[in-house]
Amino acid sequence: MSKRRRPTPAKMADIARITGVHVSTVSRALAGSPLVAEGLRERIVAVARERNYVVNSTARNLRLQRTETVSVVVPLGHEGVQGLTDPFYVEMLAHLADDVTQRGHSMLLQKILLPTDGWLAHLIASRRADGIIVIGQNTEHRALEEAAASYRPMVVWGGHLERQAYCTVGTDNVGGARAVVRHLLDTGRRRIVFLGNPSMPEMLLRERGYREALAEGPGDAAAPCTIPSRFTVEAAYEALRTFIRQGGSFDAVFGATDVIALSAIRALRDAGLDVPRDVAVAGFDDVSLAAHGTPSLTTVRQDLARGSRTLVDLLFRRIRGEDTDSVVMPAELVVRESSASPLASLRRVSRAESAPSPP
Amino acid sequence: MSKRRRPTPAKMADIARITGVHVSTVSRALAGSPLVAEGLRERIVAVARERNYVVNSTARNLRLQRTETVSVVVPLGHEGVQGLTDPFYVEMLAHLADDVTQRGHSMLLQKILLPTDGWLAHLIASRRADGIIVIGQNTEHRALEEAAASYRPMVVWGGHLERQAYCTVGTDNVGGARAVVRHLLDTGRRRIVFLGNPSMPEMLLRERGYREALAEGPGDAAAPCTIPSRFTVEAAYEALRTFIRQGGSFDAVFGATDVIALSAIRALRDAGLDVPRDVAVAGFDDVSLAAHGTPSLTTVRQDLARGSRTLVDLLFRRIRGEDTDSVVMPAELVVRESSASPLASLRRVSRAESAPSPP
DNA sequence: TTGAAAGCGCTACCAC
DNA sequence: GTGGTAGCGCTTTCAA
User: Is this structure's pTM higher than 0.85?
Assistant: First the structure.
């Protein structure tokens, strides 16, 4: 309603005037410089605190030629709001917020919906941040390659591809996928499908691990079969429903992410199939939901706390001008109910179902 | 490894030199001022684009006395990483990222773990942002009140309390809670417990709605009973398990949030109780998970897209110096499986259980 | 130890 | 229309 005047916040010159010294002395005092006499410094700090004065970071940053800010950017293809809602990204974000803050920097969060040409170059050129952390390559491998040619302080969470120019931190996607598919084969599954979108590097690597495990597996295992699906709840659900409706035959689903795998479980149940009796399901990520559903989800754990720490650590080294190699962290297979052996399930089921008809 | 020199990015003076005009002209041209001759402007813009020049926002902001940035801050008590992971916050964040970006501003994300005295005053004084959006009051009502006395551009997502000084946007918590509890009473439940932490304003209001509905309900309904629980998966699970173990008697649980309600379902199941046959469960928020679980969750929907838009809209009006009133949005009851009538369940169950029936 | 002054990169006012 | 210039609030070099 009323447009009252905003109270002008104190500036360094005000503090200087009040304490009767020059601004440069205030600046030194507030920065804890040993040049300022002990007593004077205390007096200045006291006045500053009393007036609730905090150094203007814009002016400070202009002078110092830095921003004390890290940009965290999430490129999303057609995933929309849902994309950022994937628990994987979220847990990563929460960790990054901690780790970046701990280094005394602010965190700028940027969602890039439907990346347009030059978005990354523009983001870099605007110099709103001292460094950039990109979460997930999505379909932006090319843009990242180009940016890395001239811009150093950037680290990417994602899959490590051959001969890539940019620095990544990520899990051993191939190894993790191999382990989980081998586990499915070991528990008697023979027609395993892959549900995911191999146009994203991480998914591509997981699919590669899937193919490798099948190639090394028993001779009676069915050939690899990839059902393309974006990584949203709805997309995965629909993709699998369609596959089932079209008569696709399989006894296990390896979802490229946990969100995909959990959607697969729902699609299977809605199609009247039992998990794990009829179809085993496994995912990738080990988001917190994975352990709590019914059935709980077999998956591959990614250590996000460590991932976040590594991302931030490498980024700050790059900001300092160092060069850093990519980091591939080991993956850990987590076996839960959704991939229980069909034989075990059969036993359990027969007990329940045979009860009414006493032999 | 090698500490290569970072290439110095172009500045406005460079563009001026190249095009043979003065910086002020470049500034005007890039700002699209009608003062610059058409042809000249195009030439300048072309050179800038070619050199990949983007205006230095720090310098620009210092000159313009603003930051083109909005701070989104999430105060967390003892919830830790889990707090930010609550799907409710996350969906809100994703929307805010869109809405803030759409206004041409950047979004600073700040998690405040275990708020210390003066955190908000400090955040405001640092002037890293033109305005602040606080998501959830948590236990910071006092701090918000104090800040609002002198700082205008701040909007808070949360419950609207009597005589509060700061501007909030939120759902009608009392009304939503009343509706859901009335629904539980209507479907035959009589011993309804509230699971949540009334020290947070939103939860307090939901608890008030719960009490009001019970007070207005049938005479044979049990007195209100609040089981204190923080809003993390683990806390809610443990709180209810303990209550059950101590012999608490109830036939319905109203969780203060969906995350709490979903944890309650797990706790009940693990205790051998069937939802909704033995105990009905309802939540608040309608996060995307609520619809997809087994059983699906009865809850109160909050319109986050609208909430986010309103928050951002009010904030920008306040940044412009306007005064704005708080907004309370209507709540919508969403009835799903978790609160199905015990009679209906009984019928279904008896059909299934009477078949084997050998005692 | 403290003060004075330059200057970070930009925008806007005032001349012409 | 365009150029010159002051100044946003701060840090740091150089003098004293």
Answer: yes
